[in-house]
Design goal:
There is one protein chain. With 258 residues, the chain is α/β, with parallel strands linked by helices. It is built from ten helices and eight strands. It has an eight-stranded parallel β-barrel with strand order 1-2-3-4-5-6-7-8, surrounded by six helices. The longest helix is centred in the C-terminal third of the chain and has 18 residues, at 185-202. The chain binds 2-phosphoglycolic acid. 2-phosphoglycolic acid (PGA) binds next to strand 8.
Amino acid sequence: MKKGKKLIVGNWKMNPARWDEGKGLLLGIRKGVMRLKGGKAPEFVICPPNLYLRDAVKAAGKTKLSFGVQDVSPFDGTGSKTGSISALMHRNSGAKSAIIGHSERRQAGESDDEVNRKIHLALGAGLRAIVCIGEKERHANGDYLEFIRTQLRLALEKVERKDLANIAIAYEPVWAIGAKEAMTPHDLHQMSLYIRKILIELYSAEATGIIPVLYGGAVSPENALGIVRDGAVDGLLVGRDSLNAANFVEIGRLAAMA
Ligand code: PGA
């Protein structure tokens, strides 16, 4: 498992409806993060809607928070691509990371090929790619294991060793996203080991020390410590509770204790 700071990513998804509200949330998080003592602080990344990114970067000022986006365009460069925002534009607007392959994007039709393409574009633009993988459902025959292996292999196709420092894997079982209960730490432990084993096969033993493995799906202050400690993950991808400043900071504090 990667030594060092835990990585806590907040995915605001399509929230809130107005930047004023987003600003209030961000300043609440900023205040809470500033109160955390050095050693107890994880690395926090906030992924607001694109429209708020520049204002968010400005409002956060000089803090330990950094920002990411929730997706990047599958197109490179500039040009006639109505509605698209390239990875480089995000980078130039202050993003340092990009969530890629979130199940809500995959559900909207994003293919493994597109996920791979977006990862390359994000890396090329100097963004850290937070790559989401996760099975839709689990059958007793264990076929989800093969599903995860394939998803991970296709996502990382042609990603070179030198770029691994800019990759994080977020394991998010689709059935736990937006659900009442998170995956149990015991089941997660099996998956985090399994994912690291695949990374070793794809690269080398070293890869597991470089690539953080995160968990996402119904993370809350109640389960964060157990998930990180007993699930043996390097951080968390938080949806709903990233919209509550106190809960989000508390999740980070607990994760850093694990
Ligand atoms: P949730 O979402 O924390 O609201 O379950 C997680 C995610 O979609 O990343």
